[in-house]
Design a protein that fits this description.
Layout (H helix, E strand, L loop, with lengths): L3 H13 L17 H13 L3 H13 L10 E3 L2 E4 L4 H18 L2 H20 L23 H21 L4 H16 L11 H9 L5 H15 E2 L3 E2 L7 E3 H13 L3 H10 L13 E3 L4 E2 L6 H15 L6 H4 L29
Antiparallel strand pairs: 1-2, 3-4, 5-6, 6-7
Helix pairs in contact: 1-2, 1-12, 2-3, 2-4, 2-12, 4-5, 4-6, 5-6, 6-7, 6-8, 8-9, 8-10, 10-11, 10-12, 11-12
């Protein structure tokens, strides 16, 4: 496992890329997409950088469109890819539920609840017959008929986090509950509802990471794809037929392994991808092993964030760890992390809500 000093450096490396206005891009001056920005904000909260995480969430909230969507990409605060993607709309709910579990920040939850409500209402409007959610909106405002498995597995988690937030603020959302039920059923029983992107590792492990598959079904799915995607000693491939391992996919696989009750295998994967670590605590995106070359030549905040979230899930260091360690059953707010495992966090930071 990474040392406390190493993990603190990784959180600091993420924080160093944040813009003065709160934007949390892939790297300073680079692109920002809502999903990856939320993942990076969660890592900041895990590491105790709560003010910076709050600023990142407020930056996103300020740029939500009236229909509940965000642009697919921003640079310097300007929309550079205006298309609407369902998984971008949904993921703020995951970040804010994580924030609640980690800090008990009632003020921010109340402030951003209308943003979450608009976003998840959009997601439910994009749901297709049979339960899957269209990946994008067409120019006429109707959902694209193509559904992507990884994005839908993320949306399953998002809808359930949204339902939890709705209970917290006292505004039940039965439509979200029904949408989550239908989506979960599609993820478990209707593979034909999703585009065939099985060569991508995310489509392999994300139904486990997002909580749609649990228990024996989760273990069986991870076992089925293991030899296709895992490169011993290096991590997980992004694409099955490419000799390229990536840090974020490896650590997300580790999160899925923790969720499936395989922490030793998860720890092995986090250890395997440490060849991507930079001396400042950030992480290179990937490695093409036949060429002994890092590619792309960038160190994105979301790769470092995946490392931090995997470390938290493995250690149980914070009260938010269960969001990924046991996604099949959303943890109750205010529960405590495991004592004695949070040496890299500020004093008392593992205790969650007071």
């Amino acid at each position: 496992m990474l040392s406390g000093e190493q993990l603190r450096a990784t959180v600091a490396a993420i924080a160093a890329e944040q813009e003065a206005d709160g934007a949390l891009p892939w790297f300073r001056g680079g692109r920002l997409d809502p999903w990856d920005s939320v993942e990076a904000a969660m890592a900041l909260d895990v590491g105790g950088a709560h003010d910076q995480a709050r600023a990142a969430y407020r930056w996103l909230a300020a740029r939500q469109r009236s229909d509940g969507s965000w642009a697919a990409e921003y640079r310097d605060g300007v929309e550079t890819a205006p298309g609407v993607e369902s998984n971008h709309a949904g993921y703020l709910a995951v970040g804010l539920w994580h924030r609640w579990l980690r800090t008990g920040d009632e003020e921010l939850i109340a402030e951003l609840w209308p943003v979450v409500r608009r976003a998840l209402d959009l997601v439910t409007r994009m749901q297709l017959p049979g339960g899957a959610v269209g990946w994008a909106l067409r120019p006429d405002g109707t959902p694209d008929g193509t559904a992507l498995l990884t994005g839908n597995a993320s949306l399953f988690q998002a809808l359930r986090c949204g339902v939890a937030l709705a209970g917290l603020v006292g505004e039940p959302q039965p439509d979200w509950e029904l949408a989550a039920d239908d989506l979960g059923s599609a993820l478990r029983t209707r593979p034909e509802a999703f585009a065939d992107r099985s060569r991508y590792s995310m489509d392999w492990y994300y139904p486990v990471l997002g909580g749609a598959l649990t228990g024996t079904a989760a273990a069986e799915r991870l076992a089925e794809g293991w030899d296709r995607f895992v490169v011993p000693g290096l991590g997980a491939r992004c694409v099955a037929d490419r000799p390229w391992v990536t840090g974020a996919e490896t650590c997300e696989l580790a999160l899925a392994l923790v969720a499936a009750g395989q922490p030793d295998a998860a720890l092995e994967q986090v250890a395997a991808m440490q060849h991507l670590r930079h001396e400042d605590g950030s992480y290179w995106t990937g490695y093409v092993y036949p060429d002994d070359a890092r590619w792309p030549v960038e160190r994105a905040t979301w790769t470092a964030a995946a490392v931090v979230l995997a470390a938290d899930a493995l250690s149980g260091a914070t009260a938010a760890a269960g969001l990924f360690a046991d996604p099949g059953a959303l943890p109750a707010a205010g529960t405590e992390g495991s004592p004695g495992t949070a040496d890299w966090l500020p004093d008392g930071a593992g205790r969650g809500r007071a």
